[in-house]
Design a protein that fits this description.
It comes from Roseburia intestinalis L1-82. With 421 residues, this protein is of the alpha/beta class. Helix content is 40%, strand content 14%. The two termini are 13 Å apart.
Length: 421
């Protein structure tokens, strides 16, 4: 039986890069592909419906593999129910006639009507996607890049029947990589400072009547800065329960979603500290992404600001970097694609740690890991790498082999196939 995988592109360049890697991987396994281009919405939708209809006649199977809820609310045109075209697949029972598909007010959801498993890979914390997750198709399988995010979905999104952990993965550009000694960039940081873009996420803090919103924000952020291995949602809940003992589970979730901007502030704080402490110790760092030119220390001669570039343009920069520096987006039980992209570029990767990374790698063998509580040791770790380039090259080579074997999108595609297809 032929299986076709549906992909959705044309919204974010980073997600398009990941999608193309997955598409290449699945096609190498023999799967057919259909790409829905969100920039050509009506044309893409009509072509998709026709593809599904033709496939139903041939007893084909379909899956959607997408990122960050893209296409979750794709609907059929009014009056079209898909009757007679419903696919009989093994993973889910038919959901046609559900509250979404049967509503007179709403157009029927395409994934539900055709009973197509909707495999949704979240690159960010689920609290950024409250509405799409609450209204996710009944055929959803949500894969999270942090194990704490899996726990969060199981607790707060009872409508989602299936969720699992899928780590980030990396992309390799080319197959030949220069030795570290021949590379032109000493330390590369590729990522924006969220503090300069997070303002639109801040709610009216007076709209939280149960507590003093201003005080909560300050206390929670202070706790995260001083205890950076804690998750934002756990600290917010702890504060709420300390102040009130009558707040419901649902209300706790609502306030966590309202206060999620604190997560970005904590991320930005440690991201800035990591780069700043290097440049102030005389280590040249080349930074890409918004915000680095707005810091009070941006005039430091050891900071080289390259502006904002698209995701595919970062890969050749990593291929010319001795060290790729990473800090997490407040993931405590996951990773970030910067880590695996850097490894696959043959660079020496330096990153803050997580429970996942500590289980997966050995500090100093495939990469360098540092604790956020010990960020002041970072310059010494980096100077040590530059001072012992032969051993640093061996570490980079070891990291490359590990990422090549276990942390590409092809390996993630193989896992998705085994676990869910």
């Amino acid at each position: 039986m032929q299986t076709t995988i549906i992909y959705i592109t044309g919204v974010y360049d980073t997600l398009d890069l990941f999608t193309q890697e997955l598409k290449n991987a699945f096609e190498s396994m023999g799967y057919a592909s259909f790409t829905y281009d969100a920039r050509l919405e009506e044309v893409s939708k009509q072509a998709l419906i026709e593809c599904i209809g033709d496939g139903a006649k041939k007893d084909q199977r379909f899956f959607c593999v997408t990122f960050n809820n893209l296409g979750y609310n794709l609907s059929l045109p009014a009056g079209m129910t898909g009757t007679g075209m419903l696919l009989k697949q093994d993973i889910f029972q038919s959901t046609a006639g559900s509250k979404r598909a049967g509503s007179a007010e709403e157009e029927p959801n395409l994934w539900e009507t055709y009973n197509i498993p909707y495999i949704n890979i979240l690159m960010d914390h689920p609290f950024h996607y409250e509405k799409p997750l609450q209204n996710a198709p009944a055929t959803s399988i949500v894969l999270c890049t942090d194990r704490n995010h899996v726990r969060y979905i199981r607790r707060y999104f009872k409508n989602i029947r299936y969720t699992d952990f899928l780590p980030h993965a990396g992309v390799e550009l080319g197959s030949r990589h220069k030795p570290l000694a021949e590379r032109g960039i000493d330390v590369l940081y590729a990522g924006a400072l969220p503090i300069y873009t997070v303002a639109k996420m801040i709610p009216d803090l007076s709209s939280i009547p149960e507590v003093d919103g201003e005080e909560m924000a300050q206390v929670v952020l202070s706790e995260l800065v001083h205890h950076p291995d804690r998750t934002t949602e756990d600290v917010i809940e702890e504060y709420l329960k300390y102040k009130r003992n009558d707040i419901s589970e649902q209300r706790i979730h609502e306030i966590i979603v309202q206060m999620r901007f604190i997560d970005s502030y904590a991320t930005s704080f440690f991201r800035e500290q990591a780069v700043r402490i290097l440049v102030e110790n005389g280590i040249r760092v080349t930074a890409y992404g918004t915000g680095w030119d707005q810091c009070e220390w941006s005039d430091n001669p050891y900071l080289v600001y390259g502006g904002k570039v698209l995701a595919p343009e970062i890969l050749p920069l990593m291929n010319d970097s001795k060290i790729v520096l990473n800090t997490m987006t407040w993931f405590k039980a996951g990773a970030h694609d910067r880590i695996f992209n850097g490894m696959l570029a043959g660079a020496a990767v330096v990153t803050d740690d997580s429970t996942y990374l500590r289980r997966e790698f050995t500090d100093g063998k495939e990469l360098v890991m540092f604790s956020r509580n010990e960020i002041r040791t970072l310059p010494d770790r980096v100077f040590d790498l530059f001072g012992h380039m032969q051993s640093t090259q061996r570490m980079a080579d070891c990291g490359y082999q590990s990422a090549k074997e276990h942390h590409t999108w092809k390996s993630r595609a193989a896992w998705i196939r085994e676990a869910w297809m």
